[in-house]
Every structure is written in structure tokens, then in C-alpha cells.
Amino acid sequence: MSRHNPAEILRLRNILAQYEAQEFPLPGISINRDRDVFIPQVIDSTRRVSFVSVVAARPLHPDRANPHSALFDPIRAALIYGASGNFDEACWLVFLFVHFGRHRHAGWRFVREVYGKLGQTPYWTWARTSANPQLFRDWLRQNQQVLLRGSQRGFGNHRKYTSMDADKPAGTGLAVQSYVGWVMNYGGHRQLIQHALGQNQADPRRAFGWLYHSMTVVASFGRTAKFDYLTMLGKMGLAQVEPGLAYLAGATGPVAGARAMLQGNTDRFSIQTMENRLVVLAQYLGVGMQVIEDSLCNWQKSPSRYKLFSG
């Protein structure tokens, strides 16, 4: 049995045909085979984006927020802290979730062991880390070989070029210290987000863009990490922000997908032209820009043969 509802596939196929008739051609899916691969990727991406709201609606075991428990999960931990009013801890866990990612074999091991201070207490809460980020880097330097032990370890797929190192430019030590500096320059997470909204007339999309560009000061956080962090804050209800664009500049997979989808044999569109056309496409499909970005990235990996991707 197909994991995709035939009625939903037909609905999206009709919408794509309407988009092409009224707006712009989609040469990348002019062949039905390719169109029938792209549509399931849109459905899969929509499910992934809605995952957080589905999880948030369910009861969460308190050990989901305990890094010394095998049940620990940084996404669910952030939801627990957000619901209890500990806003800073919730945002801090979102940062750690994005920084470390989830390894396909080791799971949450890196974020669990770093946040949980290798089973010690008190562990690296936001209050403790932000009060003395240099102390965190010193601890990391002393323990990074322990953290890197064994073969069941690693960063998530989007973070595979990140390092556990306390001192290297792409290392965890500088990432944490620069993140603390970015946030505390405004006094805390809540004040940072309020400032972004205040600077942008409370427009969620403009505030997202402001935060996205402001976050450039966070070491090792490139285009994907910034996009993932801010979209997760939005999905969790921690910040009233959402992307108004696919943020293609600096991207690899999403740009490749956008070019394959939008460009014909002779067209060579600018990033801005592609962004504009994708915004209209998202409006037709009734999805957010994160769904567009994610589905294009995954579709271009296998445009003629459907493959299920986990993230």
C-alpha cells in the first residue's frame, strides 16, 4: 500500500497544472514520471514540518528533558521547557539540537552527553553556560576525547562537517560561545526575539530575515543551520517568525532543486527570480517555504525515482 493518499496526489497534481497555466512553467517536472516523484516529496516534507505540532499535542514524559536518561530527546525537551515557561532553556535546546543533529546510528548521543555533562550535575543548562561560556569550553577541551570515544558517534547529516573541538573555528566550543554572545547581546532569547519583531513591525517573515542575517555571527552556523534553527523556533511557538523565502543564497541542494524545477534548457534565472517564483508556488500549494525548501532539496537527489528521506 502506498504511504501517499491518491486523492492528495491528484489534488496537488491539479494545483501544479493550474500554477503552470496561470503563472510560470515547471520544466523540471514536465515529464509525468518526474512530477509523480516531486509530489510525494511535497507530502513528505509537509509531514516533517508538522511533526513538532503533532508531538506537542501528546503527553510528554518528564525524562524526555533529562539528559541523564535514555529517553532524552532535545526536541521534546524544548517543548517541555517551553510549556513550563523556561523560555531560555527551550531555545538553548533548539540550538543544541540543530548544532549536533541526530546521528543515524548514535541518535542523540552527542547532544545528550554534552548537555548532560557526561552524567554529571549540574549539567550545561542555559543559565550555567551563558554565565560562563569559557568554563564550558574548558570542560569541552578536557572531555572531547571521551565524547569522541567508540564508533557509535557523530553529528547529524546536516552537520557532518562540524567538529567537537573546543578551539577550532568550526568546533563546538566557539559555536557555543558565539551563540551565547549573540543572544546575550540583547539580554536573553526573549529580548532578542522581541527586538527582531520590534525592528520589523511584528512581521513574522521580516523578523525571520532579520534574525537569519543577525545569526551570521554564530560560528559554524551557515545557511542551513540558521534556517533550521529559526524555523524550529517558529514551529515550537517560541518565536512568531516564519521564512518568507526559501533562502536559496548559499544553499546547495535547494538551489539545485530550484534550478532543475524552474529553468528550461536556455533559461538561467537569478536567485531572486527563483525565490519569487517559489513564493508563488508555495501560495498555490498552500504550504510554507520550509516545505518548498525541503521538498526541492530531497527531490533533486532522485528526481525520477521516489525515495523516502528522513530529514
Describe this structure in words.
This protein is mostly helical and 311 residues long. The chain folds into two domains: 6-54 and 245-299; 62-189, no CATH class. Helix content is 58%, strand content 0%. Helix 1 (6-22) packs across helix 13 and helix 12 crosses helix 13 (271-285).
Structural class: mainly alpha
Cα shape: globular
Overall number of structural domains? 2
Let me know the number of strands. 0
Count of helical regions: 14
Task: Briefly say what this structure is.
This protein has helices at residues 6-22, 32-56, 74-84, 87-100, 109-115, 126-131, 133-147, 172-184, 189-199, 204-214, 223-235, 253-262, 271-285, 289-299. It has 311 residues and is mostly helical.
Q: What is the topology?
A:
Layout: H1 6-22, H2 32-56, H3 74-84, H4 87-100, H5 109-115, H6 126-131, H7 133-147, H8 172-184, H9 189-199, H10 204-214, H11 223-235, H12 253-262, H13 271-285, H14 289-299
Helix pairs in contact: 1-2, 1-13, 2-14, 3-4, 4-11, 7-8, 9-10, 12-13, 12-14
